[in-house]
Amino acid sequence: MSEPHVILASGSPRRSEILTRIGVPHTIQIPNVDESTIENETIQEYVIRVALEKYREVERQTLPGNWLIAADTMVELDGEWLGKPADANGAIRMLRKMSGRKHTVWTGVVIGETGSDKMKTLCERSDVDFMPLSESEINKYVSGGEPLDKAGAYGVQGEGARYVRQINGCFFNVMGLPVAAVYKGLRELGWSD
Fold first, then answer.
1. Beta partners for 71?
2. pTM here?
3. Which string of b and e fits 92-122 if b means at least 16 CB within 10 Å?
4. CA 75 to CA 147: how far, in whole Å?
5. Where residue 30 falls among pLDDT bands split at 50, 70, 90?
6. Which domains are present in the chain?
7. Sheet strands (E) in the chain
8. Are 104 and 127 in contact (CB under 8 A)?
9. CA distances from 38 to 31, 75, 153 (A)
10. pLDDT, tens digit (0-9, with 9 covering 90-100), for 77-130
C-alpha cells in the first residue's frame, strides 16, 4: 500500500458501518487477543487495555505510516460487567436484568499512526435507560439472533432500539465506536481525509 490509510482493528460490522457513514475509507484487520479480565481492574481500565492489545497486535502486522483504530466495549449494570452472551440463555438472563433499568456502556478506543509515537487513548461513557420488557418480548428478540454477538445482549442500531427509552451520551458509543471523539482524535494526531 503506497498511501496511508485507516485500518480498523475490529471484527465488528457496526464499527465499520459507523466509519463508512462518516466517510472514512478503511480496511479491516481482525485482531486475536485474550479478552480475559484482570483482578481488581476497573471497567474503564479493562476496555482501554483490551483496545490497546488489539491495536498493538494489528500494528505489528502493518506497515508504518497508516492510521489504526482499535476499540472494545463493555456494558455495566450496577457494577456487574455484561459482555457478549455465551448463548441464547445468557442473552435472556442479561435482558431480564436490564429490563426497566439503567445501564452504562463503556468503550475504550486507541487511535494512532502505525510505527510512530502518535497515539491517543479514549474512554467514552453512555448511560442507557431500558424500558421494562415482558418475557415474550425478551424471548422473541433473542430468538431472532440479534443479541448473541453484542455486549449487553442488544443492538441499539437494530431491533434493540425499540427497548431504549433514553441515552445520555454518544449514541454511536452504544453501537461500539464513539465516532465524534474518534474523528476529533484522528484530526488532532494529524490525519486528514
1. 109
2. 0.91
3. bebbebbbeeebbbbbbbbbbbbeeeebebb
4. 13
5. very high
6. 6-189 (3.90.950.10)
7. 6-9, 26-28, 67-77, 80-82, 102-113, 119-130, 164-168
8. yes
9. 19, 17, 22
10. 999 999 889 999 999 999 999 999 999 999 999 999 999 999 999 999 999 999
Mean pLDDT value across residues 160-186: 95
pLDDT band at 4 (very low <50, low <70, confident <90, very high): low
Burial of 75: CB neighbours in 10 Å, binned 0-12, 13-18, 19+: buried
Q: For residue 14, what are the CA distances in angstroms to 11, 19, 73, 118, 150?
A: 9, 9, 12, 26, 10
Catalytic residues: 72
Per the listing, cell 487511535 goes with 111
C-alpha cell, 153: 445482549
The answer to whether 76 and 97 have CB atoms below 8 angstroms apart is no
CA distance 162 to 29: 32
